[in-house]
Amino acid sequence: MDDYDTALVLSRVLTSGVVMSIEKSDRELPGLERSLTRASGRRHACLVNSRSAAIHAALTGLGIGHGDATGGAGLGPPERSFLAWLGVTADDDVPPPFALLTHADDLSDVDAVALVVDLTGLGFGPAAAFLTDDAGAHARAERLKIFGSYDLRTMWTQEESGAEVVPGVQFNYRLSPLVAACARLALTKGARS
Amino acid sequence: MITDFPSAPLPLPSEDELTAELAALGGEAIVPKGLRRTIFPVITKEDVFNLLLATRQDPAAVVAGFAEKYRDYVGAAYALPTASGTASLHAALVGAGVEPGDEVIVPAFTFIATAQAVVAAHAIPVFADIDPVTYCLDPAAAKDLVTERTRAIMPVHTHGLPADVTAIRELAKRHGLAFVEDASHAHSASVDGRIAGSIGDAAGQSLMADKNFPLGGEGGIAFFATADAHARAVEYLARHGIDYRMSWIAAAFGASQLERLPFYDAVRARNAALLGEALEGTGLFSPPHVPSGHVHAYNMYRITLNPEAAGLGDLPVHAVKEAVHELLVAEGVPAREWQNTPIPCHLPFTHRAGFGNGHPFTLNPGAVRDHVPQDFPVTLRMLESTLVLCRELRSPVEYERVLRYADAFGKVARRPDAIRDLVREKDYPRPYEKAARLG
Ligand SMILES: Cc1ncc(COP(=O)(O)O)c(C=O)c1O
């Protein structure tokens, strides 16, 4: 993507006035979610603000937490350290429960239940997504984010919204709309060229 | 395209409106429908230009440049820019020496992220009640909770009013605890000239776009008093493969906004003073109390109700509050509750799954308590007797709008009869009997 495109997207979002991720009227985060679900053929996307956050979201979505074991074959040192910090034991002989990808990969050609897609390489700051067909996994991953899948209007009233998905520890893994808007255009351009 | 221009200017207030029929009973609203929107954050042409300039710069330099500029503004020794306020609190805690299983004392009244950041550090939040006047952490309540395993105390400068930092520093010193500030509401707030974020051993601060000092989306910053604490946080994140880096887009927007922060601070202070004076005159309402030497940043403006002063002392205070809330909203004043139950009564702290299988709570079962709202009587009393103005007073609100807010409070305060009728008609639940809300 050239500088002109980035400039145009940034100006457009700034002009809309909506730069906050928990704003009801934000269109940029849902837009990037749509691009990613379309490109991957997966039903749900959980956007986050880094690669480590996306791994955390995927594991939480899959119900893997502290004290559990999972596959770790092929993971690099930062991912192994991160799993250890989460209290998840990684078995080197077993593949991880998610496919670890970047924006440069062809997402339509991946045969995995869970996709972790690192978008940081697009150049707009740390950004990533967890993609899945499983609605329950998506809901659990969203709940890992404070305010996840809710907004300033509804403000996450616990009983009203799916008390069966009770969050444990939560992080602010929310992605910024400005970053999402730039990432989306870059992905679209990349797909075209 | 959304334009920042409202469809019409707000009319100037007039005396007659004060005695007109309440909007809830069919009268005209003090702030007319269609003229209630406030813009936040304000995005100027130089913000746009500065962001475009940043696309030509090295992303790491944009983030570092922002962090240095803001660190200097705050007067903190060391800074670590992060992806969010929650991340900054996590970094501040580990930098200050918090280890897995340690206890960290936090107020029961705050945003949930304060306590979740403690859990993120694999430590246990221990909840203390608040001061009945400032609504910040009560140092005496905190003192009663100190144990052998307490490692840090993390007050919140709630709504922008600095906590009692002198008492907290003394307590921390006496017991060898780290003093970590949650300065997420308190940009530019100060005690005796020292800006929030530079007072404790470490501090975390949210810079998300709904705060007084907004970045371009999500962001935060941790401050440290020593190079050691800063290095410990940086090393911790690297060692554990945690990516908490701030986006250069958020940073470039923030660097541009920082130029105008003193202007917005001044507008908020002016509006708070004007509204405060008007509230004092109503009897029913009182403005936030600001101890001498403290500068309040007014990220939120919490108004206390005094039903006795309006001859309503025989009614339950929470019911008076609910009735007043309804009447104010009908007048076009966007009052809110902002929290309705103590944080330890939110689901993540009643279930305590943590990272899974109860970690880190299982590391220190002695520190864990099954709380009920009544464990925090001061917090409950505050939740039952106060209302909050948030972003509607945060943006550089026009003079005529603040005057209208003031008039709406005055108009409602003149009608204890209408308040009494509503309380009689409706069976209002107590705040904490409703579903727990984050904001
Ligand atoms: C008191 C307090 N602490 C921490 C946070 C967390 O900050 P962030 O949302 O940027 O992660 C917030 C607000 O959002 C807050 O109000």
CATH class of the domain at 3-15 and 24-62 and 97-134 and 172-192 in chain A reads Alpha Beta
Biggest beta-sheet profile of chain B: 7 strands, mixed
Overall pLDDT score of chain B: 96
By CATH, the superfamily of the domain at 3-15 and 24-62 and 97-134 and 172-192 in chain A comes out as Type I PLP-dependent aspartate aminotransferase-like (Major domain)
One letter per element, helices H and strands E, the order of chain A comes to HHEHEHEEEEHH
Fraction in helix of chain B = 25-40%
How many strand segments of chain B?
Answer: 13
Q: What is the CATH class of the largest domain in chain B?
A: Alpha Beta
Low-confidence stretches of chain B: none
Report the span from N to C terminus of chain B.
Answer: 29 Å
**Beta-strand share of residues of chain B:** 5-15%
Attached small molecules: pyridoxal-5'-phosphate
CATH superfamily of the largest domain in chain B: Type I PLP-dependent aspartate aminotransferase-like (Major domain)
Total tally of structural domains of chain B: 2
**Count of alpha/pi helices of chain B:** 16
Instruction: Please identify, by name, the CATH architecture of the domain at 3-15 and 24-62 and 97-134 and 172-192 in chain A.
Output: 3-Layer(aba) Sandwich
Spatial arrangement of strands, main beta sheet of chain B: 1-9-8-5-4-2-3
Protein name (chain A): DegT/DnrJ/EryC1/StrS aminotransferase
InterPro entries (chain A): PyrdxlP-dep_Trfase_major (IPR015421)
Organism (chain A): Actinorhabdospora filicis
Pfam family, one (chain B): DegT_DnrJ_EryC1
